[in-house]
């Protein structure tokens, strides 16, 4: 009995301790890094037609592959927002400047000044107030002194607040900028909205969550007894757009809010996908992105409506198809002309056989009761061989004797001219040395040439952003197809041109031989990258 009592007490103690530690363990589990997430998605009518912006992804990416269904999707570009040649960040700052927020003016100025000081590379700002006139204190600009001056001169007055209508119209305007960029909005308010007409909160939430106009909406709320429900609606905008939100009352130092915002968006990665024409049909499709970083793998997916190609792109594709059809027509016409020429030659030989020939008088087909008909070219050759075999044998014998005599003579003279041959060989090899670099000549358009100097290297591919020599219209070429470098061989001391294959689909060949890893390029070699042919010329 005592043992049973002790067992019950022991079990109760263990249950009590478990109740104490389970919340702790759960909180530790929630603190684990969840990996990268998609914070914004943009679609375009031109390829690359889909752009993703990701957070939570730092360090080098070892491999990246994208798919839609079972088909691979081309990753035309990827990198970090703000780098040279990469998209920049456009930030909309929307401030409630009504009398209710006047007591928080110092905190508002501190937060915005800190955000502007910690701006991302090439970031641009626009500052707008929430009064019914939606006054823009600045245009979208990268002049940070101008933005800080606008924030410090912000005034507060007696007017109604139109949060829904102003934010709705500004998000539409933000997405309408011509530059492809990462958009975000920072809203500072107590949540009050005095709009009587205009868009509803449901319509605003739909816009924030849409692929076309949606972007991260970071909200900073200042508590007001009259606007408790307004703060909940304000923070719902951030939850809808998967962005952080902050209550200023929770922070002793409001600069920590600005630092948290900048940490959240300090390392934005972007990926641009190019889809095949058959997928750009205005229907919703899902794209999956597989990333590898060392031994860690991530899988992200997102669905979106893929727009139809733009008018200009459709026009260009139509012109390319017309040019291809015209080229095919010209080839057929040239082939027909050659066949007609051969028929004409055959007919001329037949006419000559009818009129008589002193050497081969029997090149006609005679019948007992039919008219004399000219022979075809094949019949004429066959009759010449069969009826004049003796003459043909004599001619072949004379040619064979001449070849034997000439070959023997050249062998006897070999010692005499050996030094001259060595000298000629050296001259020939001098023509094959690289002195200044190489030229790559487009075989199909010989007026287009590319120069590579000694000591340099260039990447060839379809992507303008990631290649030194780009062929964006060659759909058979990978975004990065091959790398060519010209350097000095440490063993021989000679300068050589070396091609390194960057494509895994077997689309790189040199002189009709597929290149798997790399190959040294000879003078006059023909490269085929995708469907583009280039000839190597030493200079």
Q: What CATH architecture of the largest domain do you see?
A: 3-Layer(aba) Sandwich
Shape: elongated
Lateral arrangement of strands in the main beta sheet: 1-2-10-4-3-11-12
Number of strands: 25
Number of domains: 4
Derived structural class: alpha+beta
**C-alpha-based Rg, rounded:** 39 Å
How much strand content do the residues show? 25-35%
Q: What is the CATH top level name of the largest domain? A: Alpha Beta
The CATH homologous superfamily of the largest domain is called: von Willebrand factor, type A domain
Between the first and last Cα atoms, what is the distance in angstroms? 102 Å
CATH topology of the largest domain: Rossmann fold
The main β sheet shows up as: 7 strands, antiparallel
Q: Helical region count? A: 11
Residue windows where pLDDT falls under 50 for at least 5 positions:
21-33, 354-363, 366-370, 415-430
Described by its quaternary structure, the protein is single chain
User: If you average the pLDDT, what whole number results?
Assistant: 79
Helix content: 25-40%
Which key features would you list for this structure?
539 residues; alpha+beta; Rossmann fold; 4 domains; seven-stranded antiparallel sheet; six-stranded antiparallel sheet; 26% strand; elongated
Structure description:
With 539 residues, the chain is of the alpha+beta class. The protein folds into four domains: 37-81 and 272-303; 89-266, Rossmann fold, CATH 3.40.50.410; 315-412, no CATH class; 434-538, Tumour Suppressor Smad4, CATH 2.60.200. Helix content is 35%, strand content 26%. It is built from eleven helices and 25 strands. The protein has helices at residues 2-30, 105-117, 144-152, 163-175, 201-208, 228-240, 255-264, 311-355, 377-387, 389-412, 418-431, and strands at residues 37-43, 50-55, 63-68, 71-80, 89-95, 124-129, 182-189, 217-221, 245-247, 269-274, 284-293, 296-305, 364-365, 373-374, 437-442, 449-453, 457-461, 469-470, 482-488, 495-501, 508-510, 513-514, 518-521, 526-529, 532-538. A seven-stranded antiparallel sheet has the order 1-2-10-4-3-11-12, with no helix packed on it. The protein has a six-stranded antiparallel sheet with strand order 16-15-25-24-21-22, with no helix packed on it. The protein has a five-stranded parallel sheet with strand order 6-5-7-8-9, sandwiched between helices. Strand 1 (37-43) and strand 2 form a beta hairpin. Helix 2 (105-117) runs antiparallel to helix 3 (144-152) and helix 2 packs parallel to helix 7 (255-264).
């Amino acid at each position: 009995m005592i043992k049973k009592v002790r067992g019950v007490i022991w079990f109760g103690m263990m249950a009590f301790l478990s109740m104490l530690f389970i919340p702790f363990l759960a909180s530790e589990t929630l603190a684990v890094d969840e990996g990268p997430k998609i914070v914004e998605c943009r679609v375009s009518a031109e390829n690359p037609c889909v752009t993703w912006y990701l957070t939570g992804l730092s360090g080098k990416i070892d491999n990246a592959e994208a798919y839609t269904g079972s088909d691979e999707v081309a990753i035309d570009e990827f990198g970090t927002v703000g780098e040279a040649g990469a998209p920049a960040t456009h930030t909309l700052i929307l401030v409630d400047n009504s009398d209710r927020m006047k007591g928080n003016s110092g905190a508002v100025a501190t937060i915005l000044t800190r955000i502007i000081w910690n701006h991302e590379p090439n970031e641009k700002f626009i500052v707008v107030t929430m009064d019914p006139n939606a006054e823009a204190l600045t245009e979208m600009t990268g002049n940070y002194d101008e933005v800080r001056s606008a924030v410090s001169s912000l005034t507060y007055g007696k007017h109604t607040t139109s949060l829904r209508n102003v934010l709705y119209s500004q998000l539409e305007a933000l997405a309408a900028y011509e530059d492809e960029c990462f958009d975000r909005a920072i809203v500072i308010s107590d949540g009050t909205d005095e709009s009587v007409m205009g868009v509803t909160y449901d319509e605003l939430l739909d816009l924030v969550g849409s692929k076309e106009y949606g972007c991260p909406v970071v909200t900073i709320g200042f508590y007001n007894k009259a606007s408790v429900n307004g703060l909940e609606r304000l923070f719902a905008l951030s939850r809808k757009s998967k962005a952080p939100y902050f209550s200023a009352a929770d922070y002793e130092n409001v600069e920590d809010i600005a630092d948290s915002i900048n940490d959240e968006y300090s390392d934005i990665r972007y990926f641009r996908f190019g889809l095949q024409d058959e997928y750009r049909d205005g229907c919703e499709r899902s794209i999956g992105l597989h990333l590898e970083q060392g031994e860690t793998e991530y899988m992200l997916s997102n669905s979106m409506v893929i727009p139809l190609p733009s008018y200009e792109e459709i026009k260009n594709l139509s012109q390319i198809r017309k040019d291809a059809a015209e080229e095919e027509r010209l080839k057929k016409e040239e082939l027909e002309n050659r066949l007609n020429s051969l028929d004409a030659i055959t007919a001329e030989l037949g006419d000559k056989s009818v009129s008589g020939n002193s050497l081969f008088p029997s090149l006609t087909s005679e019948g007992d009761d039919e008219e004399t008909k000219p022979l075809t070219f094949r019949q004429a050759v066959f009759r010449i061989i069969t009826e004049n075999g003796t003459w043909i044998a004599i001619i072949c014998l004379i040619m064979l004797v001449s070849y034997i005599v000439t070959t023997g003579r050249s062998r006897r003279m070999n010692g005499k001219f050996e030094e001259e041959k060595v000298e000629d060989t050296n001259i020939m090899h001098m023509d094959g040395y690289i002195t200044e670099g190489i030229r790559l000549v487009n075989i199909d358009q010989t007026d287009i040439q590319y120069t590579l100097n000694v000591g340099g290297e260039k990447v060839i591919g379809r992507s303008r952003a990631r290649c030194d020599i780009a062929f964006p219209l060659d759909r058979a070429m990978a975004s990065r197809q091959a790398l060519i470098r010209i350097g000095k061989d440490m063993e021989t001391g000679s300068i050589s041109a070396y091609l390194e294959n960057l494509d895994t689909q077997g689309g790189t060949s040199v002189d009709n031989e597929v290149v798997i890893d790399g190959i040294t390029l000879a003078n006059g070699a023909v490269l085929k990258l995708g469907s583009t042919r280039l000839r190597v010329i030493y200079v």
